[in-house]
Amino acid sequence: MIDRAEAEATLYRVAVSAFTYYPDKPDLEPGYGVDEDVDWCSAPLLSLPPEQLAPLRATIRELITNPTADRRAFIATLDELAAE
Question: Are 20 and 66 in contact (CB under 8 A)?
């Protein structure tokens, strides 16, 4: 459903967004919203149907904002999508 490059781009973008996010970022950076990071991270996945993309976007949001979130299931999902 997606190619390997799209999966890798998504994983890279999620990692960068999670690494640069901090709880006060919306307050300290006027105009910032986590939605812009979610949009950027999910851009390589836009070829997926909306019903498949929506839960991935929710997961991406959680991975960005929760530093203790387990990323293994997300990585496995990207691998599965790239293998299909």
Answer: no
Q: What is the pLDDT of residues 29-81, one digit of tens each?
A: 999 999 999 999 999 999 999 999 999 999 999 999 999 999 999 999 999 99
What gap in Å lies between CA 21 and CA 54, rounded to an integer? 21
One-letter amino acid for residue 48 of the chain: L
**Can you spell out the DSSP letters for 9-78?**
HHHHHHHHHHHH--TTHHHHSTT--HHHHHHHHHGGGTTS-HHHHHHHHHHHHHHHH-TT---HHHHHHH
For residues 64 and 32, is the Cβ–Cβ distance under 8 A? no
Query: Is the distance from CB of 59 to CB of 74 less than 8 angstroms?
Result: yes
